[in-house]
Diaminopimelate epimerase
Amino acid sequence: MMLEFTKMHGLGNDFIVLNGFEEDPGVDYSALARRLCDRHFGVGGDGILVVLPAAAPADIRMRIINADGSEAQMCGNGIRCFAKYVYEQRLIAAERFVVETLAGPIIPELTVSDGRVTSVRVNMGKPGLLRSQLPMNGPEGRVIGEVLAAGGAEYRITSVRMGVPHTVILVPDIGAIDPARLGPAIERHPVFLEGTNVNWVEVHNEREISVRTWERGAGSTLACGTGSCAAAVATALNRKTGRKVVVHLAAGDLLIEWESDDTVYMTGPAETVFQGRWSGTIA
């Protein structure tokens, strides 16, 4: 099978973008993601993004397949890469448009210079704050500073749904965290009915935080857009920050704004790394 692809990243969270308008509609994207995302025998990536036609009122559709073949409802770094790709490939002419995702309609707004997208501000919607929205076992209500026992340790967690479920743990030193060691036991804890992404957050002051993430279906990643949004909401809920913060990640920063109407906005970059052609078999 022959595939044209574009390799992109959002602050190091990297994706293989495929134009589904031009590919076989019967392709097994789950198997393809496992093959392409392998960093030794494939292209390498945290997941694949598939560009597809959408039903009105959306303008275009995004599918997100994680490296393990599971499908994600939403991806913050992925949506910025997706928005840059569809604009620069002239699949979309507008600088503000609606993307159909499994998490609902998402609206990116592009900053463009000389025909190139330099940054993307995304309306990420309103966070899900109730246990049933995560979804998570237990009595209905918000999960703020709740004790969770996992992997032989206890953590105080705050859980937020930003398209996908996220669990936030405040720590004094982000550099001491090993997501690959700590993440799996929390991700798969039976209290989380769909599993959870895990974010460790160090609060520097009321306007700045640092985040490290273990992503459900992808593992330890350099950045997570939905996780950064969840972290900003969680630190505000715990009265550690205001509702507008700069999130420091391994490869750069995101601006997260939780507005008074509860809508969360994320602003950050997306980069094209290279374009290529892959010829191989999925099996």
